[in-house]
Amino acid sequence: MSATGGGTRVLLIEDNADDAELLVREFRRHEFKVETKVAPSLHVARCLLRDESWDVVLSDYNLPNTHFSDIASAVKAADRDMPIVVVSGAVGEEIAVSLLREGASDLVLKHNLSRLVPAVVRELAAAEQNHARRASEERYRQIVEATSDWIWETDAEHRIAFTAESGEQAEWSDPLRSVGRTLWEACGIDIERDPHWRGHKRVLDAREPFRHFRFAFRAPAGGEFHLVMTGAPVFNRGGAFLGYRGVASDETLIVETYLRAERAEARLKAGLLPVFRTPG
Predict the structure, then answer these.
(1) This prediction's pTM
(2) Lesser CB count within 10 Å: N end or C end of the chain?
(3) Is the distance from CB of 196 to CB of 215 less than 8 angstroms?
(4) What Gene3D superfamilies does the entry give (predicted)?
């Protein structure tokens, strides 16, 4: 049995053809457009899950010689966000709880099919949200891997809460990945004696966004590094301050090149470097 027309794709895992037809009729009664196929066994379900794409699975939990956990595993292997709505006869509370623990999104009883379409609509919406969240996380991961910047977050006390760098860990990044410390503590700065950092902390305490805050520090392995940082405050829906989120870039090569050029120019002016003249 298959309903065509490009509607929501529903896989029915049900060994009773009459019960499967009842589910399709319930969709039609609500004018909910679906495209369905019936899998009378776990083997057929696995083949259909492998070969075709589905939006939602409706499954009887009591297929012959089949445990529901095997059905749930097969569905989640195909798409971990795909909802599974169990449609079955009367079940006890203990079985209902077990089904939800094993991966069922909802349970609809066959004598109360009026709940079927609302349950499917709700679970499809939840699955769409999960897909969108995972897509957003994947985009973020790809951005982190593609950028040369250091991505960071702090908590409400300005302590480092999260950091991420792409590719190989930068030589300078180790002390700045010290979760639980402020950035100036990680850099070994006495903020009471450093007006540059003290001014930056005033901006943070005022919960204002900042751009191009530049600082230098010496890494434990030696070598001075120069970074530039941009950040924005983060608030929850209630307006409570959560911390800062932003990026930092390594400007060490730029700064060193500039300093070498300055030193060369100073030595040239002082007559310490030979002047090469083009033959006239």
Answers:
(1) 0.53
(2) C
(3) yes
(4) 3.40.50.2300, PAS domain
Residues 52, 9: Cα–Cα separation, whole Å: 10
Look at residues 68, 136, 75 and name the one whose alpha carbon lies nearest to residue 97.
Answer: 68
Within 52-115, residue ranges assigned H as helices are 68-78, 93-101
Beta bridge partners of 6: none
Burial (CB count <10 Å: 0-12, 13-18, 19+), residue 200: buried
CA atoms within 13 A on the CB side of 150: 24
**H helical segments located in 170-236:** 183-186, 195-205
Helix axes 42-51, 68-78, angle to 10 degrees: 10
- Our measurement of the distance from residue 258's CA atom to the centroid of its chain's CA atoms, rounded to an integer in Å, reads 39
- Name the packing angle between helices 116-146 and 17-29 (round to 10°): 80
